[in-house]
């Protein structure tokens, strides 16, 4: 087979380039309307109904979308471009078509108490750098967070002030102070959220109700008692004090390692119940249930008889009453002891 000549190779290259140009060249009867700021292209040409019916519909729509996208990309290459980190970036113009938002415009956040105070006093926020110089380690470190500069939690010794108790743990005091600051910041955050929603601003501790009920007071007292280190185990009870209702019961679990004989007997009892055809009957429970039912029936009978005894003698409000409206006997007093004439 003879090798192609230079003329044939050049003709093949020209043919390949022409095929490539065909891929980026699209002919339309009417020019498209472009809004490059929104990367929008509007095609005013009516679709070919005959081709839409004869060809595959999905394929026809894909080819139409591909042609319009190619025209949009061709327009993007006419814009001024620049290279940013080995990428060619085009500068888009201002959009001309107003596109409606999917979601409403977000409402501005309500200012916090500090922001209102700073605005009133004219205090301007100054941006702090994230890195500061640490004199101890002689290096630049973060201002906050892990491995920060001037980290007082890494101190192995703390000087006891003259006014403090010498037996007090200064390390624990520093930890508790930090916990209090964190809790105070969280409380202020909740107050800002409540103020923004125009709700009730929580006070210090639990938010009290306007008129707490007896159960609520009991629960609050129980929670206060259980807030000790011993979970209220050594707290004394008041005279005639009752445990609050609906406080929940602590579940008790059997130990994993213990009496193997008791565990073996329990498992054998469960197997006997599962293996027996007749269900096991608890005689004591059945007798107690029967006694309760009988007592309930007797109580119902007594209530019915008492109701009958109360309503049997009277005849209503409209009936005659004893001792009124009757004429006395002629010759005597009392119940007919007089003589008749």
Automatic annotation (TrEMBL):
Residues 301-310, 318-341 have a biased composition (Basic residues). It holds the Pfam family RRS1. It is found in: Nucleus. GO terms for cellular component: nucleolus; preribosome, large subunit precursor. Its main location: nucleus. One of its GO terms (biological process) is ribosomal large subunit biogenesis. Residues 234-246 have a biased composition (Basic and acidic residues). Keywords: Nucleus, Ribosome biogenesis. It comes from the Eukaryota. Residues 199-258, 276-341 are annotated as: Disordered. Involved in ribosomal large subunit assembly. Belongs to the RRS1 family. This is Ribosome biogenesis regulatory protein. It comes from Eleutherodactylus coqui.
């Amino acid at each position: 087979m003879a090798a192609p000549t230079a003329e044939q190779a050049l003709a093949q290259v020209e043919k390949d380039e022409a095929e490539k140009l065909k891929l980026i060249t699209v002919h339309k009867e009417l020019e498209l309307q472009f809004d490059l700021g929104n990367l929008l292209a509007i095609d005013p040409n009516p679709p070919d109904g005959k081709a839409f019916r004869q060809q595959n519909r999905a394929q026809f729509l894909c080819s139409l979308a591909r042609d319009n996208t190619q025209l949009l990309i061709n327009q993007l290459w006419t814009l001024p471009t620049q290279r940013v980190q080995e990428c060619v970036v085009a500068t888009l113009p201002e959009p001309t078509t107003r596109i409606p938002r999917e979601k409403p415009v977000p409402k501005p956040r309500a200012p916090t108490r500090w922001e209102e105070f700073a605005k009133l006093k004219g205090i301007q926020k100054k941006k702090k750098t994230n890195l500061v110089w640490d004199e101890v380690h002689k290096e630049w470190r973060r201002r906050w967070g892990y491995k920060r500069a001037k980290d007082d939690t890494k101190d192995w010794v703390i000087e006891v002030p003259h006014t403090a108790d010498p037996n007090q743990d200064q390390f624990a005091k520093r930890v508790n102070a930090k916990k209090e600051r964190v809790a105070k910041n969280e409380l202020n955050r909740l107050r800002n959220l409540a103020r923004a929603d125009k709700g009730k601003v929580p006070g210090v501790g639990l938010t009290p109700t306007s008129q707490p009920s007896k159960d609520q007071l009991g629960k609050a007292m129980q929670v206060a008692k259980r807030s000790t280190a011993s979970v209220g185990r050594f707290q004394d009870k008041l005279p005639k004090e009752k445990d609050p209702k609906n406080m929940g019961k602590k579940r008790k679990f059997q130990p994993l390692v213990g009496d193997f004989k008791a565990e073996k007997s329990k498992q054998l009892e469960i197997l006997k119940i599962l293996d027996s055809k007749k269900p096991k009957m608890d005689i004591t429970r059945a007798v107690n249930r029967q006694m309760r039912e009988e007592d309930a029936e007797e109580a119902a009978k007594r209530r019915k008889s008492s109701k009958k005894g109360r309503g049997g003698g009277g005849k209503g409000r409209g009936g005659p009453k004893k001792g009124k409206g009757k004429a006395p006997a002629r010759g005597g007093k009392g119940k007919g002891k007089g003589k008749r004439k």
